[in-house]
Each structure stands twice: as C-alpha cells, then as structure tokens.
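Chapter review: from sequence to fold.
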Amino acid sequence: MPASPSTDTAILWFRQDLRLADNPALRAACRDADRLIPVYILETDTDPWAPGAASRWWLHHSLSALDAALRERGSRLHLLQGEAGACLQQLVAASGTTAVYWNRRLEPAAIARDRDIKAELKQRGIACHSFNAALLVEPWDHLNQQGRPYRVFTPFWRSLQPRLDSLAPQRTPSQLPGLPRRRGHSLQLDALGLLPEHDWDAGLHDEWQPGETGAHNRLRTLLERRLQRYPEARDRPDADGTSRLSPHLHFGELGPRQVLARIQQHAGARRSPGLVGAGEQYLRQLAWREFAHHLLYHFPETAERPLDSRFKAFPWRNDPDSLRAWQRGSTGIPLVDAGMRELWHTGWMHNRVRMVVASFLTKNLGIHWLEGARWFWDTLVDADLANNTLGWQWTAGCGADAAPFFRIFNPVTQAQKFDPDGSYLRRWLPELAALPDKWLARPWEAPAAVLAEAGVEPGATYPRPLVDLKASRERALAGWDAIRTHNRLTM
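The token string follows.
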C-alpha cells in the first residue's frame, strides 16, 4: 500500500542547480518542510539535446560532490533514472510527499516537460514550487521599452546594469531537514552509466574539479590572480586569462548572482579603478550568457533553425570528410587544429579559438553550423544549449548581434595577434614546434628547407590545408551575396 500523505515531507528536485548555496528551491523547502528528500533524476526521454559524453562525465563527478555535501549535513542524494514525471510520481507515492520544489530550466524541452509534470502533480494534490536559480533576471522580467525581447546585446546590457546592485545571492541554509524513513529505492551513482566505457577522460581529470567546492576555487582564482588583467588576457589562448567558470555555471554549482556579488565585493574592497573596470568587463561576459538564455527562451526555434530566416537559403555544403578532419584537428590550419585538439583533450576551448574554429567550419568549409553545434555539444564540459546556440549562430552570421557584414575570421592573423610567440600552437601541435614563429601559423607557405630543418613533412607529419583560405573566403562571400539577392527578389 502507498504511504499515507504527510504534510511534513517534501521533495527537492535537483537539475542544473547542483549546489547548496544560493539555491532558492532548497531554502524554500528547508523553510516549509520537516523532512526533505533531495533527488536527482537522470532523464531518459527523447530530448534531441540530451547531455553529451563530456557533460555526462562532469555530471557524474558533480553529483558525487553534491551527495558528499548533503551527507555532511545529515542528508543524502536520492538517485533515479527514467522519465522525470513518472519517477517523481513513484517517489511521491513511496514517501507520502505533499510538495515538490525545483529551480526552473528554460530550454524548450524542459519548459514543456515541467509544465506537464506540474499539471500531473497538481491533479494528485501535490503542491509544486519553482524558482529562479540560473539567471540574474528571468526572460519575462527583462524586456525592451516596447515590451519585446532584446535582439541586440548592447541595449540588453545597458538596461541590465542598473539592476545589478539589487541582485543578492541567498545564503546556504544553516540546517537541512532530515530524511523520511520511507523514500523508496535509490540507485547507486555508478548505475547511471555516466562515465565513459573507454578511458579517454584523463585530460578532463587533470583540468577540472567538478562540484561546488571546485566552482568556488575557480572563482577565487579569478578574483585573486586573473581579474586585474582580464581585459587584456581574455583574448589570449596562450595566457591563462579567462575564468573557466562556464561549466560550473552550466551545472549550477555556482550561480550568476554569487559571481556578481563576489566581483562587486572584491573590486569595492580594493578600490582600484583598474580592478573596477576589469570587473565590469567580466560582468559584461556574464551578461552575454544571460543574453543567450533570454534569446533561447523567446526564440526557442533557434536551437535548430537560424534566427535570421534568410540563412534558410544559404548554400551549405555536405562534406563528411572535411567535417571529420575538423573534428579531429587535422585540417592543416594550425590554430583550428590546436583548438580542436584542446577541446578533445580537456573538454574545453578558449573562446577566441571557438570563434575561429566555428568560422572556419561555416565560412571556409561551408558546413552547416548545426554540425559544429552538435560536435561541441558532445565534447564540451560546458555544453549549454543557450550559449552553444548563440555562439554558433553569431559566428555563422545568422543569429542575434551578428555583424552587418559577413564576418570571416582569418586563422593565420588571429594566431599571430593572439598567440604571438606560438606557445598555444606549440602546446597542441608538437609536430610543428620546431618551426620558426614566422611560419608556425602558416606552414604551407614555409620554404622547403625551413620545413625540412623543423622535421615537418607536409601531408605526412602534418596535414596539408583542406582549403585555400582566400578562395574559400571568396566562396563564402559569394554564398552571402546569393542569399541577399534571393531575399531581395522574393520580397
């Protein structure tokens, strides 16, 4: 028989909010319930953007860290796998729960799923309480003067700035409610099958510390070592000048309001104009993340289709061989290959290099941006649907804030400007390490004697370029002209 209803037991449904601090759903549940079941459900639905391999690796370790934090406070994480609504119904029946608390997710599939789950639970008399833990402000609370969503970042950021001082994070509850005696069966973490069957994750272990503690360690490093030089260093893949907070923010091990508060406190305490300016530069990047989530909420079709409808007619090329070479870091273009190898080894890529490799795929190779978005989705530890969508559409030229011209990044000049001594290229392309700086970013132009002396054999030790950069640029521009002409003729 199912347990009789009880008014003192609640479920806290963790999703992308794997932290105890600044967790509104947790605080509300702790306030209202005498007994609490923290649960994570690995969903087995048909969402086309289910977590990729790198994200699953991160999730395993983040769940382990969250469970350890809960156990320190006399609780533990309940693990389930299956369709989320059915799992919650089973847990409600087993425990006699009368309320479920969660923090909102705003991806299109999650919105639809949450709406159905809330309706089903309410039909059974179960109270549902949802909160904002992922964003500074939610999309329906931040519109332009016409009551419409922003499509350009600068006015979005300008209107957000006056609101920042009022966005304070919530404290960690001093005490967690205990667990009820009856709560049904919980899976072991390993039973979720999140870790890879083959050992390809050594680089991820070396690079990352998933979990709330790892997130705060990263934030501390940003404040103490990187923030002052962030405006100059953030574009340099050869310098460790970025925050690398993106996976922690995606999994909710750290909330944006926490980052905002710490940066404001740090800059204010030091009273350094340079530090204040650097802090604003970083907060601008945090707002870009916010902008991405607002766009996906208001334009959910953009996860699969271009925001700029003209690009439905763009002449994309179907070239599986070139796509595989790009994925493997074997294009013959050093900055592109270095970035793709960094991605495979660490689950992350510097943002400047992300733009370059995306531009090369979409502009020089002419391959659809969705092919790149799907590869990033599977290989990035910070794979986030909103950020991934905005980034790829921005670089392809079909999204929000795209340039009025057809932007094409030159991987040679980008390497020379942002990796001037070649340390980034040499780290990820050791087969080119002996080349002089002059030829490192463009080995196909190096004299044969220079290549021989450096031990570089084109086509053998390092690939020849897949395409000619100038000719492929001209082809991309011709494609852009074609869709503009098509649009004028069909108006």
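Two observations follow directly from the output. Residues 1-7 have pLDDT under 50 and may be disordered. The CA atoms of residues 156 and 250 lie 21 Å apart.
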